[in-house]
Amino acid sequence: MRxxxxxxxxxxxxxxxxxxxxxxxxxxPGPPGPAPATHGPAPLSAxxxxxxxxxxxxxxxPILGHQLSAREHARCGLLLLRSLPPARAAVLDHLRGVFDExxxxxxxxxxxxxxxxxxxxxPPPPSHVPAGGPGLEDVVQEVQQVLSxxxxxxxxxxxxxxxxxSIDLMGQLSSTYSGQHQRVPHAxxxxxxxxxxxxGCRATRTLMDIYVQCLSALIGSCPDACVDALLDTSVQHSxxxxxxxxxxxxxxxxxxxxxxxxxxxxxxxVHGGAGGGAGGSGGSSSQTSSTDPFPGSPAIPGxxxxxxxxxxxxxxxxxxxxxxxxxxxxxxxxxxxSLAGGTGGRSGDPSLQATVPFxxxxxxxxxxxxxxVSGELVDCLKPPAVLSQLQQHLxxxxxxxxxNMLNLAVHLVSQxxxxxxxxxxxxxxxxxxxxxxITTQGLAVPDTVxxxxxxxxxxxxxxxxxxxxxxxxxxxxxVLGPPPPPRPVPFLDALRNHVGELCGETLRLERxxxxxxxxxxxxxxxxxxxxxxxxxxxxxxxxxRSPEELSLATQLYAGLVVSxxxxxxxxxxxxLARVHAGTLQPPFTARFLRNLTLLVGxxxxxxxxxxxxxxxxxxxxxxxxxxxxxxxxxxxEEVAEAAASLLAICPFPPEALxxxxxxxxxxxxxxxxxxxxxxxxxxxVASASQLLTRLSQTSPAGLKAVLQLLVEGALxxxxxxxxxxxxxxxxxxxxxxxxxFASASLLDTNRRHTAAVPGPGGIWSxxxxxxxxxxxxxxxxxxxxxxxxxxxxxxxLLSLLVHCCSALGGTECGGSWGAPTLSPEAAKAVAVTxxxxxxxxxxxxxxxxPPEEHARATVERDLRIGRRFREQPLLFELLKLVAAAPPAxxxxxxxxxxxxxxxxxHWEASRHPDTAHSPWHLEASCTLVAVMAEGSLLPPALGNMxxxxxxxxxxxxxxxxxxxxxxxxxxxxxxQKFIFQSERGRFIRDFSREGGGEGGPHLAVLHSVLHxxxxxLGLFSGRFQAPSPSTLLRQGT
Length: 1037
Fold this sequence. Notes:
The chain is mainly α. 60% of the residues lie in helices and 2% in strands. The chain has a two-stranded antiparallel sheet with strand order 1-4. A two-stranded antiparallel ribbon has the order 2-3. A hairpin with a 3-residue loop joins strand 2 (770-771) and strand 3. Helix 6 (137-153) runs antiparallel to helix 7 (155-177). This is Integrator complex subunit 5. Residues 1-44, 279-303 are annotated as: Disordered.
């Protein structure tokens, strides 16, 4: 036997004519003829061929009689493969065992390595393969050489047969040894590890090379046979066969992608797909509709052959990661080619007719392919001509198939992910919108296409609603175990990052668009709870410009309140967090606050619907007062004003505000009051005034804080000019004057002051007029504010103070003019704040009036008090307010005493013949006496003396003021001297009960001055008579 006695494979050479006869058999495509013999001995004789057949069939050497080894048996088969074409199938089947044994030996060698698994995991050798020597690599190499020679000699005849054999054998080997060896990873593991293992085996690598050679030989003519074999094997042996698909696809990406799709489409035309698709001739009759609207693996009832579409999906899925662009181009090319074929009627090309259903089925079965195409799908469909062609193409389909494809399209849209999902939504909405009168000619969408998109969107919303509200699975799931995780909806997941854009589109209120997108926002909020719901509500509240747009927010909340608990607190918290983080722009922040104000205002109007909804908004706003208060200090005026408007009507929490919350609100509210007064004047302080009035009514601590901060703010240097006060004029001048002394030593200055003899007022008493060596201080100046504006501002402040002091929000009125009754405690708080602001070092001083000689020790303080009253006329108005609620004026005794002492000093030093030369001092003297009379510190006879000050000389005014000082020294301004009169609801002072309290001894100076000027003041004598006790009591009330 030649195969037994030759050291090399039998590869003899024959004549050229014999070669042609063997390699090119008659008929096409007939079975492949004998292989060429170019380098071997002469062809076998009939006897030798008979012996070779007998040896191959029995496995025994007919001459020597011994058992053939694996190598000898394989070489005998190769000799027959060359010489006897009918033995092709038997020889190739025998070679399967050779490759199987080679793979088993390779894996066994891997198992025997130090890290190999236990021996009991090693599979037994196949029974049909006799035990061989150590490895069959040389035989495998011989097989590759022989088969390669066949392919090169006659590719059209041999390549389809050998490719089908090699690809099927790789599938069997992959399935057989998958998971049986420790070194063979499971098919669900890493594809790279699996590919590395099998390509390291000589047998499987040889089979791969043989198939690649077959595909290369037919790639220019007709590679469908090779691709068909690949598809069939992939269906049978997936997923163990995936490594083969990955390697071949990476080697021939363009060919594999195009031919796989082409073969899959041809198979789809014949076998169709469950749930839709166009069958070819003879195949449509066997189709039945599936009950599953979105099948994953289509099949045909009554047919054993599995359609290749599942294999197509698997192969393209492996190639999508590295060759996504090629797959996308090929899919879009197929789509456009099908549209170019015209109407998809049954008389047309079946492949063109089935392309659109085929592509839909591919996308349904493979999310990877859907993601590959979805990015450019919108650009592909945007031209109106494409939509028109698609509409014409689908006209020939039956109604049932059109409905089925529409359901597939709805499912595909719900599975779209990534950035293409939002673009796809916008495309569908734009296409479904009714035609506009400004639509450019040539860009209009046909009505049938618009109606189809309208129906598609409605079905999509319905489908999404079912997915969102039935995410937990069927009722029986999770009964015996934990409930299944919620089913993801990729389309809604992709819209998570586009909530802002959806809200903006919704607020445009464009006919159908805003209804669709508003419904989609609701579904997205329920699906992604609790993240997107508060975000969407916040976007709507911060962007709504009109009540119509604001109603969209209330409708969204009304639809989500059942599904999402705590929606409003989360929305408030997220919006305020964005505000404080600076990510929400000031215009949107102001709009958000104004819309909240409008909603809370609906609640205060009463009723149902928006009013009841506004009550919930008010409750949520009241729970975030600490976050809203800082917005009153926002640098943007519109934000601060909007925050003031909201807080002015926002209900306070039922429980009392904490001291920190209360003080924070009061401080911010006072700051807002003065800022609004400066920018907008009195009309702009309504919100801040209302807020402060409500805060003053929460508790006594709130009232005290409001009054204190209002008075301090009004007397602050930055706000004095609002009320006609003087401003320091040494801001620029002082810097110029002090420039030469910039290098002066503070230590030297302190040493000089320490060595000097201190005066009664301390070392700083010499600085009230200037600094020695630098001259007088620059004069004060009044900023140019209209006097009418100053009066208006003052009245606004006093009105706010009166509302806050009105008996803790009571409405009782007293007096003949119906003036509000001021709370003595509130007025006392104003008085104490005045003393602390004007003269802090005298705060808490004795209320009793000291002798006149005591004023010599307080000259500096008296001058400072007098100067402060001159710089800030508002102080007199505040004193009048305090005097209206006896006995609060008693607590201003220090200020009254200092001002009176300063006026006495001025009138004593004055050398003018009349008081007209000192207008401010004259007005201050008159106001001081009138205030003390109003506050019941002076009896009526002494309290009226200011009426004649303008008619007297300076020394006479001083004499009268001295009499006032004497009266106050004897009848000190003490609160204990006031009694409460329940009929009037206020405190009064009965001077008749005090010895000399009606001012009798102290009226002598006044009467003397009247007698001296009887010609001018005679008519005033009746005003300065001591009244009877009953009259005094009546006037005191």
